Amino acid sequence: MLFEVWAPHAEEKVTLRLEGEDLPMQPVQGRAGWWFAEAPARDGDRYGFALDGGPVRPDPRARRLPDGPDGLAAVVDHGRHVWQRDWPGLGLKGAVLYELHIGTYTPEGTLDAAAERLPELAELGVTHVELMPLCPFPGVHGWGYDGVAPWAVHEPYGGPEALKRFVDTAHGLGLGVVLDVVHNHLGPAGNHLPAFGPYFTDTHHTPWGSAVNLDAAGSDEVRAYFLGSALAWLRDYRLDGLRLDAVHALADTRALTFLEELSAQVDAVSADVGRPLFLIAESDLCDPRTTTPRTAGGLGVHAQWNDDFHHALHTALTGESQGYYADFAAAPMAALAKTLTRVFFHDGTYSTFRCRTHGRPVDVTGTPAQRFLAYAQTHDQVGNRALGDRLSAGLSPGLLACAAALVLTGPHTPMLFMGEEWGAATPWQYFTDHTDAALAEAVRTGRRREFAEHGWAEDRIPDPQDPATRERSCLDRAERGREPHAGLLDWYRRLIALRRTLPDLTDPDLAAVKVAYDEQERWLVCRRGDLRVAVNLGAAPASIPLGGGGRMVASWGEARVPGGDGLLHLGPESCAVLARS
């Protein structure tokens, strides 16, 4: 077997330790900084590299870290896995995504336990499961955004073989699988990359410290490292797409950006394997160039999260106006209407939160609606709240049903956050399992200090390191059979079924979407072809002018089809989907 490592920081020698035996490595001719050795090895054999007689460290490209980020790597023979499905792939057109965290989706917190629950999602009607990050991090439980080994699968989740079993099970049920990957930073503990080479640079700084080196000296190999990691998920694990965390934090001044390069390579792999593959970016730039095709001068990412839709919907539902919600809270129904028809609320407008203009308009006449994801809740928007409270903690079932109607019948690609479909009462809180005591205390005190600045008593903020914080965040499936959860779950099923069967709901033409609303009475109507989706977020009944009759396709709460007066009568916190007669 050939062992290779990029270690330009080695001054004299690199040693391979394989199953307790030390073997000298040789420089690779014509590849500066690369070292190699050949030795017999089989799946599961432990190995690592020592630079200049220093400590043995795991392979930066380790496919498995059975003892965690500070232990030796293990050889993984991907050819040993016998795939059970001949999967044709599943693209984004008509998709409904479901964001899922392995560590809290079940009490067991493993990929195998989650796989056992996948029939529930197939029955719900979603098309893709979007897994939060799976890369190894110190400890057992965490969100996953402090991963340190972007080629490997967190061992407590089950490791590489468990991910393959999960993907096989999902594909057997007709579900695609998307993985959230983090290229903008690595975790603070267990990160051995700086010992090997210039993986990070002080040329740029990010909220997490020195930036990943995408454009300074040595960045060719660093970019190849992260590009290779991304493509390995798609090839080795047969994933259908990747969600790219916070791409606005990728400091990259090169003419050919990392995102363009990644997009081009993913498209090439897609052509090679003969199935659709896609990238979804998280970006707060409100810049349509992120998803504009490369041939038209864009970055070529296939879709992006749209937080502006979330913020508009959240303020309309809750009335909250703190922080970045302030821009949307001044006229939330108008903000919601704008995001439904023009995608971004900030499209060159002034942002009071940022104290500057922000964003760029989307060309709605030529941009398919499916490039933008819409959602009422995500791991960020729930977990980054002080108590990790979901919308269900403060809203009535009626308002939750209205939110579902706007997300699942809207023009953009819908995404749900796990448990949302039944109005889960469990919170989803910020939890960690740092093994470094000093780091654990820093995280604990830092989070409490952060929320204390916003008026929260420190003793009310959950301790991220307390195992009970993670346990509280695990879903309680017993809720699914009780009201009002059961009724809400049925409503989500009906809406997703409508999206699957009514072509108007997946029409990609943004310019064809029409919205009317009343800011004071708090109602809104969205027209999608021959369908009209009406919500009344107010506490009083609403009489909504539709200009004609119609057939009730689905409704929540009090709803009466328009009569001769052309008025749709909706009760408080009610919604309806109507078709032309």
From TrEMBL:
Recorded superkingdom: Bacteria
NCBIfam families, alphabetically? trehalose_TreZ (TIGR02402)
Record's keyword terms, sorted: Carbohydrate metabolism, Cytoplasm, Glycosidase, Hydrolase
Q: Which GO terms describe its biological process?
A: trehalose biosynthetic process
Q: Which Pfam families match?
A: Alpha-amylase, DUF3459
Query: Major location, coarse class?
Result: cytoplasm
The family database entries (SUPFAM superfamilies) matched by this protein are listed as: (Trans)glycosidases, E set domains
Q: Where is the Glycosyl hydrolase family 13 catalytic domain?
A: 103-449
What family is this?
Belongs to the glycosyl hydrolase 13 family.
* Enzyme's top EC category: hydrolase
The reply to whether Hydrolase figures as a keyword in the UniProt entry is yes
Q: Which organism is it from?
A: Streptomyces genisteinicus
Question: What is the primary gene name for this protein?
Answer: treZ
GO MF, one example = 4-alpha-D-(1->4)-alpha-D-glucanotrehalose trehalohydrolase activity
Query: What InterPro entries does the entry give?
Result: DUF3459 (IPR022567), GH (IPR017853), GH13_cat_dom (IPR006047), Ig-like_fold (IPR013783), Ig_E-set (IPR014756), Trehalose_TreZ (IPR012768), Trehalose_TreZ_E-set_sf (IPR044901)
Keyword Lipid biosynthesis listed? no
**Record pathway:** Glycan biosynthesis; trehalose biosynthesis
In short, the EC number is: 3.2.1.141
**Name of the protein described by the UniProt record:** Malto-oligosyltrehalose trehalohydrolase
